[in-house]
Structure formats: structure tokens, C-alpha cells
Amino acid sequence: MELWQAVEELAFIEEEMTRLRMRETELRGTFLRGPQRVEGVNHIVEVQEYRCNVFDRSRLPEEVLTNPAHYRVVHRREVVLSPRQAPPQRAIA
Fold first, then answer.
1. 89 burial via Cβ count (<10 Å: 0-12, 13-18, 19+)
2. Which of 1, 62, 65, 90 has its Cβ near the most Cβ atoms within 10 Å?
3. Which DSSP string do the residues of 2-56 spell out, in sequence order?
4. What is the pLDDT of residues 13-56, one digit of tens each?
């Protein structure tokens, strides 16, 4: 596979995943507003409720938040996909 083909495939996959995530959000919202348990042909959906602890940075004192000793540098690499502004120009021979 040529790299330019991989670029276009990645764009297609990202668009499809966005569409699927939106649909998943719709469906989960439907279940959250409905009954606690719904049975399908092959699967069952149950709405469960639970409690968990969540770290709250706003409760830390300012001297902790601004102290560089509490931070570390992390190096990351990521692939960023963006649309082209205009189609590529082809040379006419």
C-alpha cells in the first residue's frame, strides 16, 4: 500500500468512527431514559448505577498546583490527520 492510500484510509476510518460514536451515544441515551433492563435477540442491556471517587484538582492548594516539583515532562508522539486545503496540482506533460 502506498503511503498516500494509507492517509486516505485513515481519514475514512476516523470519519466512520466519529459516526459510530455518535450513534453509540444516541443508543446509550435511549437506554438511560428507558427501563433498567432490555433484552434483544442475542444481547441484554442493563443500566447500572455505581459510585466512585474522582480526583478533584480544585481542592489542592495553589502552592501545590504552581510548584514545578510536582510536575514531570512526558514526551509523546501522535499522528495528526487534517484535510488538504486544495487538491494537489498535477503537472501537465
1. exposed
2. 65
3. -HHHHHHHHHHHHHHHHHHHHHHHHHHHHHHHS-SEEE-SS-EEE----------
4. 999 999 999 999 999 999 999 989 999 999 999 999 999 999 99
Place of cell 485513515: 10
Mean pLDDT of the chain: 92
Best CA proximity match to 83, nearest among 2, 3, 14, 22: 14
Helix (H) or strand (E) holding 79: none
Q: What is the DSSP letter of 66?
A: T
Distance separating alpha carbons of residues 93 and 40, to the nearest angstrom = 61
Q: How many residues does the chain have?
A: 93
